[in-house]
Design brief:
The chain is of the alpha+beta class. The protein is built from eleven helices and nine strands. The protein has helices spanning 31-36, 44-49, 67-96, 128-133, 160-178, 181-184, 190-193, 198-209, 219-222, 275-279, 296-301, and strands at 39-41, 56-58, 111-118, 141-142, 231-250, 253-268, 282-295, 305-314, 357-358. The longest helix is centred in the N-terminal third of the chain and has 30 residues, at 67-96. It is elongated and about 135 Å long. The termini are far apart.
């Protein structure tokens, strides 16, 4: 037969018959792959010498000098450097970033006005009971009972509890700043200060350190206080009458208004506490309108901003500075400038003269047993 016959040993190495080694030639195991293998087969000699040997053994871990170990070490180092670079860049950009958040605007300053009311006649004097009974304040409530907050319902953006909280904070300010005997005597100021927002506390402090009649820094606008060297309370129970209201002025703010008349029984400090002192009391009346601004976040801190304070008070001397403390005219005293103080319209600069009003006669008490 002339055909080709395969040898009995099969196709020699390198033959291209199907089923031979050609189909595995694409699978190549290079030196790095072999070196990286964790298991190594024992040689035939080793298996014959020791039948108890396992077919394979574990290879020792690659040393730091190996190619693979070195590769992992370099990758780790690069990763650490990249992380450090990212943190460094973030810190640098945070320090040098020109687009800082804009600072919060300062609180709007408190503005105030005081209209002194001077009487034409001498100030009536008597005992406190006689004075109150025969005055327009006869039907007024005593003390905090006269400061009544309305039971307002919710607004468009504030719940009922939030509205009531705003009214309660405003009421507390009125009580502390107008009725607290320690505040009235020119002593404690903390009960009033803690109710103000931090933005207004600085203006409050400036008004105490350097009070002046400029519409912004009168200590007597923040609170009612008398000069203890001249005036003391003849009766600690102040008569009060007035109203309070609230309205929404934005989705995050409420405005509370308080309009009250306070009537104080006072006497000269120099008289002491004798019988003559009790008979020489007089009444000092103060109409005080306060407008508060309360932000939503202020409700949690129970703080508020005082935006406007308007006062009409008497009996007072119109020409006397009342910014540091109020100095009422006492029983038997006459006003030096009973509504006659004038302002020169031709004078340059800001006028230091106060506006002046005439205290109506029927606003004064008519006691049955006057001291003078």
């Amino acid at each position: 037969m002339g055909g080709r016959v395969d040898p009995p040993e099969g196709t020699p190495d390198g033959g291209g018959s199907p089923g031979g080694d050609d189909e595995f030639r694409s699978v190549v195991f290079d030196d790095s792959f072999v070196q990286a293998a964790r298991l190594q087969e024992f040689s035939a000699r080793e298996r014959l010498e020791d039948e108890e040997h396992a077919a394979v053994r574990s290879r020792p871990a690659l040393g730091p000098g190996s190619r693979t170990g070195l590769s992992f070490s370099r990758q780790g180092l690069v990763l650490v450097l990249l992380i450090a670079l990212a943190f460094g860049t973030a810190i640098y950009m945070g320090i040098r970033n020109p687009y800082h958040s804009p600072p919060k605007p300062d609180a709007e300053p408190m503005r105030s006005e005081l209209l002194p009311l001077a009487p034409r006649d001498p100030v009536p004097g008597a005992t406190t009971a006689d004075l109150f009974e025969h005055s327009p304040a006869a039907g007024f409530e005593k003390g905090a009972a006269g400061v009544v907050a309305p039971t307002e319902r919710r607004t468009e953006h504030f719940t009922e509890s939030q509205v009531l909280a705003a009214l309660s904070d405003a009421k507390q300010y009125i009580i502390e700043s107008s009725l607290d005997p320690k505040v009235l005597k020119g002593g404690s100021v903390r009960p009033v200060r803690v109710l103000l927002t931090p933005g207004q506390q600085e203006q409050f402090d400036q008004s105490l350190d350097n009070p002046r009649n400029d519409g912004r820094h009168a200590a007597t606008a923040w609170m009612v206080r008398f000069d203890p060297a001249k005036t003391t309370l003849a009766d600690p129970m102040v008569r009060v009458n007035g109203t309070m209201g609230v309205q929404e002025v934005g989705p995050n703010a409420l405005e509370v208004t308080a309009d009250h008349v306070f009537v104080y029984a006072v006497r000269p400090t120099e008289l002491g506490k004798g019988k003559d002192a009790k008979k020489s009391a007089s009444l000092f009346s103060l109409r005080r309108e306060v407008r508060f601004h309360i932000e939503r976040q202020n409700l949690r801190e129970h703080q508020l901003s005082v935006r406007q304070v308007t006062m009409r008070a008497g009996p007072l001397n119109c020409s006397e500075d009342q910014s540091a403390a109020l100095s009422p005219l006492h029983a038997g005293q006459k006003a030096k400038d009973a509504g006659l103080a004038g302002t020169d319209p031709y004078a340059r600069g800001r006028s230091t003269d106060s506006m002046c009003g005439l205290l109506a006669a029927d606003a004064q008490p008519s006691p049955d047993h006057p001291s003078h």
